[in-house]
Each structure stands twice: as C-alpha cells, then as structure tokens.
Description:
mainly alpha; 61% helix
Amino acid sequence: MKQVNFNEQLEHDLERLSVEIKDQRTDQNGEALAEREVLKRSIQSLSEKLPVNAPVVSVEPQKSDENGSLPSYLALDKNHPEVKREVEGLVGIVFQEGLDKAINTARTRSPFVEDAFHDALVDRLLPELKKRGII
Length: 135
C-alpha cells in the first residue's frame, strides 16, 4: 500500500529518490554503504541529472531549527546564522515546491551551503524513507 504523507510533488520526488537509492546501495567496490551515505549519494545523483538552467527560487528565511532540519555541525555553530537560515530555507523549498527547485537553488549557493543542504535533507528524509521500507 502506498503511503502519502506529503504533497503530490514531494511524493513523486520520493519515488524518484527511491530508484536512485536502489542504484546507490553499494559503492563501486561492491561494499554496502551506510544508510546516510546511500541517501546522500542518491540526492547528489539526482542533482547531477537535473538540467543546469532549471528554475531557481528565492530562499525565504525560516524560523529557527524547530524541526531538526540542520545537520549537527551547523546547528551547533553560533557564528553563521545566515548560513543556517539559508539551509533551512532550502529544506523548506523541498516541502513547498519540490526537490528539483530546492536542488537547483542550492546549486547557486556556496559549496558549503549546498553540502549542508544535502546533509540537512538526509536528516529530514531518512526517517520517512526508513518508515516506508525504502532504505
């Protein structure tokens, strides 16, 4: 039975992500990867497949990290509140407008912000993907 916990666009994105997860389960040496690493590589793979000229949206500042959307290394960092807001905004785009728009928007940011966004997205999606038996 198919579970629907998010909007239709995000459900479609999770289906695409599940296909990538199946492809990423083992590294090139045939070794099994940790769940977080599989998910992160899957997100990066989707990112690489998106056209470069895809639409970018503005990142709205988000409230503080109430829902645990920041990776721990960033959540504990007191020196970069603008980076925290940017990453939280990118995660918010995923749930409001879809994964593709968020990934394309993250591409336009610094590599640190883009990587932190990927880490934050892994933290947010991993429990749901586990619950669905995808990972």
